[in-house]
Amino acid sequence: MIDTLDDLDVEGTTVGVRVDINSPIADDGSLADDARLRAHVDTLSELLERGGRVAVLAHQGRPGGDDFGTLSPHADRLSDLLGRPVDYVDATFSQAARDAVRSLEDGDCVVLENTRFYSEEYMEFDPDRAARTQLVANLAPVLDAYVNDAFAAAHRSQPSLVGFPTVMPGYAGRVMESELDVLGSIEETPEPRIYVLGGAKVPDSIDVAWSVLEKDLADHILTAGVVANVFLIADGVDLGDASSDFIYEQGYWDEIDRASDLLDAYGDRIALPRDVAVDRDDSRHELGVNALPPQEGEAAMDIGSSTLAYYERLLEDAGTVILNGPAGVFEDDRFELGTRRLYGAATDVPTSIVGGGDTASALRRLGVEGFSHVSTGGGAALQMLTADQLPAVSALERTVDAA
Ligand SMILES: Nc1ncnc2c1ncn2[C@@H]1O[C@H](COP(=O)(O)OP(=O)(O)OP(=O)(O)O)[C@@H](O)[C@H]1O
Ligand SMILES: O=C(O)[C@H](O)COP(=O)(O)O
């Protein structure tokens, strides 16, 4: 049982609110999509209107990634969306951050700097240990309560997600509450159940594949995106140097062995692409897997038309489809076809659940709509749909009682 904002006496309370506003970032550093910020408006508005003093905690990107950066543009955008001033401080738990939090008055909001600018935040801890990290130990004394609205990051056991509710009363925000409500009953969704695993977070997808196949939750897994490329290599297909180098550079080379083990154990339930699309002479060019490897420098950027026809046939019989991650590099018009058609076919399945920040942004861009539920979370939604407990949710369940 988790307490929600209904259980929090907000007025005059200084609340640390963990949100997930991790967003695509344009080349000039601005936000390329604000959907995740919009999702949290209800929670933040409610807290501010009820007289709360709100300190927003969030991450942006992963250390070393192109989208790793400051939350300053997020604060500006939140101010527009909330229709009130939102301060930003370029510190997360230092004296400057604590002073900014202490000086909040009822109805004020400040965004603290990217929690991942600080190295312990990118490590996974059990909640008790997380409570002793620098972030929690330094910031908790200036907060009265903690609200976790970051469903999309709830599968990470990082300090800002599991540490605070160990030392102060923790509550679910409105996004967290509604996601847990919708996604908490996977066993009740109609069968057969198909999982579509695409996108670029290969280790997360392989974890999910193991889990849903072992628990007999999935009748089929359709692979797409970089996940499919890893499975194709595991199946002995020569995808060429460009795709292999990309997988190696992402640090996913070991995932090929894990994919191979999965194919050995459950190959009859895992569908692999029959063709892929590459960039040849600046155009989309499709190649059957028998015609691979592609020419030098060509990478598999999307699933091809034969694969789409095959996947569409499988989806025709599905009762539930759960999708995460684009089928290809949808940002490039030549490689959006797989995502457009695969997700389009999924809207005809009686229960269709979509997860993922990039996925949701791809679907908006492509104008594909009509799903039963579009989750703010990618990996988190998938983990929830494996019927596994999310660490940040467990931490809220075990939170300390309000005084
Ligand atoms: N074949 C491919 N080669 C390279 N990149 C790909 C390919 N297919 C998809 N991608 C990239 O995958 C990225 C999205 O993957 P990701 O796993 O982050 O999805 P997501 O929906 O954001 O999920 P999450 O919310 O878990 O992060 C896109 O930027 C897209 O260009
Ligand atoms: O985009 C996401 O899935 C969440 O913000 C979590 O980000 P992470 O995968 O970098 O932990």
Mean pLDDT: 95
State the CATH architecture of the largest domain.
3-Layer(aba) Sandwich
List of distinct ligands in this structure: adenosine-5'-triphosphate, 3-phosphoglyceric acid
Measured between the Cα atoms of the first and last residue, the distance is 18 Å
Proportion of residues in helical segments: 25-40%
CATH class group of the largest domain: Alpha Beta
Taken as a percent bin, the fraction of beta residues is: 5-15%
The helix/strand class is alpha/beta
Oligomer: single chain
The CATH superfamily of the largest domain is Phosphoglycerate kinase, N-terminal domain
Q: Strand arrangement, largest sheet?
A: 3-4-2-1-5-6
Domain tally:
2
Low-confidence segments: none
- Counting DSSP E segments of at least 2 residues, the number of strands comes to 15
Compute the CA-based radius of gyration: 22 Å
Largest β sheet strand count, sense and barrel closure: 6 strands, parallel
Output the number of helix runs: 18
What is CATH's topology name of the largest domain?
Rossmann fold
What general outline do the C-alpha atoms trace?
A: globular
GO biological process, one term: glycolytic process
InterPro entries: Phosphoglycerate_kinase, Phosphoglycerate_kinase_N, Phosphoglycerate_kinase_sf
Binding site for substrate: 20-22, 36, 59-62, 116, 156
Binding site for (2R)-3-phosphoglycerate: 36, 116, 156
